[in-house]
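Hi V.,

You were right to ask for the full record rather than a summary. Here it is.
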Amino acid sequence: MFSDNEIKSTYAGRGLPEVGLNITYNNNNFQIFNQFRYGEDSGTFLVYNFMQYTFNVADEFNVSVRGGKLRHDLALYNTTRVNPKTRQGIIMPQGVYWDVFNEFLTSGVGVGMSIQYKDVELSYTIDDPTVIDSKKTARVFYGPMLNDTNTSFGSHQVASISYSPRNLPLTAKASWAGINFGNDTGPAMPSISPKTVGNDVTAEIISFGIEYKLDQWILSGETVWFKTVDKEWSKDLDSIS
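Predicted structure:
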């Protein structure tokens, strides 16, 4: 969505592009997670701030609930893959996400739940990103032709299931993510994407991954499928990799 030259020109010559501070409070089953970020252009922001409590329902049966300004489980903080290293991206300052997308790909207000029973773990999160400048963010996704828009971005949802048998050095994981890019009603939208006029622009991502550990070796692989509101499922992820 943005080129290497844009990244270099944005951050070249800066002495200190950004500073981050993470604060975590842990008291038995209760936790609080915070992250503050300072950027030369954007100032100081609270990136995320949420609480989590774990209920020990029974032996080998735990339920965790969380709420607040959550980290997105997709994009910058990716928990959807069995091994995120299988599709590594360029290492860049968090400010690249923040300055270009605001909070759309970093955090949002919502709730989540995780259920762990023996070797199986289920997780679901839904959050609503707090978009600081909806017009700027809309132009990132829809192009510079959108000089005026009243887009209202929708929620992010991520669901996953993982299985790690105790007698095998194996982990298998499947996940689904749904992203709502909102419903743009700007004057240029009918010519840019006629099929999406009057409807929310949504995308879905499904991934399946497996990881196997053998002595000093770790073998992992995955398949990822991507679908937008006006296209069929595709394995071509060049546009979001």
